[in-house]
Amino acid sequence: MAASSFPFNAEALLVQSLTDYAIYMLDPEGHILSWNPGGQRIKGYTDAEVIGHHFSQFYTEDDVRRGEPQRGLATARSEGRFEAEGWRVRKDGSQFRANIVIDPIWQDGELMGFVKVTKDVTERFKAQTRLQEAERTLAQSQKIHAIGQLTLGIAHDFNNVLAVVTASLDLIARTSSEERRQQLVDAAQKAAHRGSMLSRQMLAFARGQNLSPANLDVNELIRASIEVYRRAAGAIATCTLDLVDGDPVAYVDGARFEAALMNLVANARDAMTAQGSIVIATRVVQPADGVHPDLQPGRRYLYITVTDDGPGMGEEVRLRAMEPFFTTKDVGRGSGLGLSQVFGFASQSGGFASIHSEPGAGTRVTIAVPVVE
After folding, report:
1. What is the CATH class of 3-120?
2. How far apart are the C-alpha atoms of 101 and 289, rounded to whole Å?
3. What stretch(es) of the chain map to CATH 3.30.565.10?
4. How far is the CA of 348 from the CAs of 203, 251, 368, in angstroms?
5. For residue range 42-67, what is the model confidence (pLDDT) as tens digits?
6. Which stretches of 303-351 are DSSP H helices?
7. What is the C-alpha separation between 173 and 179, in angstroms, rounded?
8. Is the pTM of the predicted complex or chain greater than 0.85?
9. What span, in angstroms and rounded, lies between the C-alpha atoms of 60 and 93?
10. What is the fold, at CATH topology level, of the domain defined by 126-205?
């Protein structure tokens, strides 16, 4: 049967049947010309109470003062559609969250009015708000937990340092043997050095260490210390280089850079459970926007990566690996500050650090620093 043979207006029937949406026609100035049952259900007004009135009566007083109703009509007229979400007011004064769409109606180039569709999305908005609040609460809880772990780690490590220093000084005061006295002095000095190193690593993580950066050929820095890195890799791993051509220059503190790279090689070695390889590589990259929160858009970066073919790590461990004092090593095999020092160095050098790892597929840690153009 042809559509024209129906004894009723199908479009009008469809509009009148929709009660989950308030659908109404407006004249070019925004006065209401028609109103479907969905409008009465959502907003509480009868036809007689709204026909001929301006649709701004559904807006909050603040929105009316800001000119939001007029802005919606102007945008729909100039851009062909206006869509927004905000608070609207029912007849009884209560507010609800509304998603609204305004479309202009043109005929022969003349604006005849607008059709406006409103949907009550209050429950969805409340659910999203509850979810966001839960996420904020969880983030705060995790932050407090991280601070607790950090405090525990600092207290534990410095207690060990102070215990050695205190015990050594106490014994020095009691002993008469020069040889024994020298041994105790050496132990105290080593403990003090350990405490100093902990402080430097914490300052690096907090981006508070004093750097002495200069324009340096990073490839040359790596080549000059390759034998040191090979010794750090130990007998369990073969350490090789894969350096980009062109000898890129970066503005970094050479000593801190070498310390960060040494930490990565040592971490890779400690992760090995069988004979394997460690590759130190460099390449110049212009990362896509959004790759990292600290990324400077439009800048080229030198990526220095340390890759091992060890057992890799799960996602939970990977996400926490750069936290200070977080470690999967046995007690006494590391403070858990190595990767956090790498993170701090990269951040202070204007770049960032990242970890890519999967169980059984090895680990790749990247230090990214801006290239000096």
Report:
1. alpha beta
2. 32
3. 214-370
4. 11, 11, 11
5. 888 888 888 999 999 999 999 999 99
6. 315-320, 338-348
7. 14
8. no
9. 10
10. Helix Hairpins (1.10.287)
